[in-house]
Amino acid sequence: MIVILLGSPGSGKGTQSQSLAQKYGFKHLATGDIFRAEIKSQTSIGVKAQDYLKSGKLVPDSIVIEMVAGKIETGGKYLLDGFPRTLEQAQGLDSMLKRIGSSIDLIVFLTLPKEEAIRRMASRRTCAGCGEVYNVISRPPKAAGVCDKCSGQVVQREDDSEATSAKRLMVFEDLTHPLVAYYKSEATFHEVDASPTPEKVEAALSAVIESVKAAR
Ligand code: AMP
């Protein structure tokens, strides 16, 4: 089963993917997390990607498509978080799935007003060690600045700064939002309102996943 979570930065894709992956046994494929890990280890992909992440721009399609192609295997259950992000990536995904005899089972677009996305990014904090996501208002770590899971340092992601998050939202509107039109006519396309609490959004997403599972 292949599920795509589409949505602007700050719409909760990462948080929702983590819990849905655990609940349904999906492999969580988050291109942003993969890039951050590659940058941390200064691999060749990491070195190529780092300036793009820092400035809130998208990493070039060819790099992203090649990286994802190496991670999707026939028959696997994947939750794609943050990929595809451009039309070229969506077409690249279509061809890579065709090659392995697979197809997309569900595409969910998490909708959220821009102002709320900005507010959420401003209050988001992330563990520099394991990537666990916190929120200074709604979900702070138990001890300030220390990750509950790995005791790593909880910090603000450099690209969650006010200027860079505004830039990332513009990039989303220009390059990623057109994917809604690309996928909208598919029976597999659904929209879920990302404004309520994470628990409510998770319930709505679970209901959609259950309906797709029941129809298979
Ligand atoms: P995210 O963690 O999904 O917000 O992604 C953080 C950053 O990683 C983005 O601002 C981009 O620089 C880069 N990135 C993640 N996924 C992609 C993708 N599919 N295409 C291009 N760049 C990406």
Flag low-confidence runs: none
Described by strand count, sense and barrel closure, the largest sheet is:
5 strands, parallel
**How is the CATH topology named?**
Rossmann fold
Question: Quaternary state, please?
Answer: single chain
List the bound ligands.
Answer: adenosine monophosphate
User: What portion of the residues fall into strands of 2 or more residues?
Assistant: 15-25%
CATH-assigned homologous superfamily: P-loop containing nucleotide triphosphate hydrolases
Give the domain tally: 1
Which percent range fits the helix content?
40-55%
Structural class: alpha/beta
Q: State Rg.
A: 17 Å
Mean of pLDDT: 95
Number of helices: 9
Assign an overall shape: globular
**In the CATH classification, which architecture applies?**
3-Layer(aba) Sandwich
Describe the protein's architecture and organization.
Helices cover 49% and strands 16% of the residues. The longest helix has 18 residues, at 198-215. Strands 2-3-1-4-8 form a five-stranded parallel sheet, sandwiched between helices. The chain has a three-stranded antiparallel sheet with strand order 6-5-7. A hairpin with a 5-residue loop joins strand 5 and strand 6. Helix 6 (114-123) packs across helix 7 (162-176). The protein is α/β, with parallel strands linked by helices. The protein contains nine helices and eight strands. It has one domain: Rossmann fold, CATH 3.40.50.300.
Q: Which keywords apply here?
A:
216 residues; alpha/beta; Rossmann fold; 8 strands; 16% strand; binds adenosine monophosphate
